[in-house]
Amino acid sequence: MPKDSSFDIVSEPDWAEVLNGIDQTRREVSQRYDFRGHDITVDYDATAKVITLEAPAGMVMDALSTVLGEKMAKRGVALGYLEFGEVSVSGMDRGRRQVRLRHGLESQVAKTIQKAIRALPAKVDVQIQGDALRVTAKSKDDLQSVISWMKGQDFGVELSPTNYR
Fold it and tell me: Which CATH number fits domain 5-12+104-162: 3.10.20.310, 2.60.40.1470, 3.30.70.860, 3.30.230.10?
């Protein structure tokens, strides 16, 4: 048994739940009365992590964006992961909106979180490892206190503890 315990702090949504939220949005669009008669598409590019919404500009696009947000929230995907772009209007009053899915920790945010954790009274070591932070300690109680502290903080990104060992 290792003498040090650790966990990772990441900013990643549950990708399976993201796909479920997109699928539920498509289903609701096909069933709702106020969307009938409109040409609406919801596409997802998994490599770029971008959802593209196409619908008539105005109230229909706003309702589609709201439905996407509601379905993601219902599936447990925090709205902080969704970055809604501006609606670009093309011919025939068609609108297109790109919704980028945020993932990974930027180095500046990671350094800020690292500095804040080191200022805590818990005896932990924090290392930046790519898009994640690794927090290690001899005591699991110290790790638990860092996790509970982290959940009460706002660093401008969604954070979740994973890989607890």
Answer: 3.30.70.860
- CA quadruple 51, 56, 57, 59: dihedral sign: negative
Q: Is the per-residue pLDDT at 2 higher than 70?
A: no
**CATH architecture of the domain with range 15-101:** 2-Layer Sandwich (3.30)
The reported pTM is 0.82
- pLDDT at residue 21 greater than cutoff 90: yes
What average pLDDT does the structure give for the chain? 91
What percentage of the chain carries pLDDT values higher than 70? 99
Single out the residue of 83, 123, 124 nearest to residue 102, CA to CA: 83
| Size of the chain in residues | 165
Longest dimension (CA), the chain: 65
Question: What phi and psi, each to the nearest 5 degrees, are found at residue 46?
Answer: -70, -30
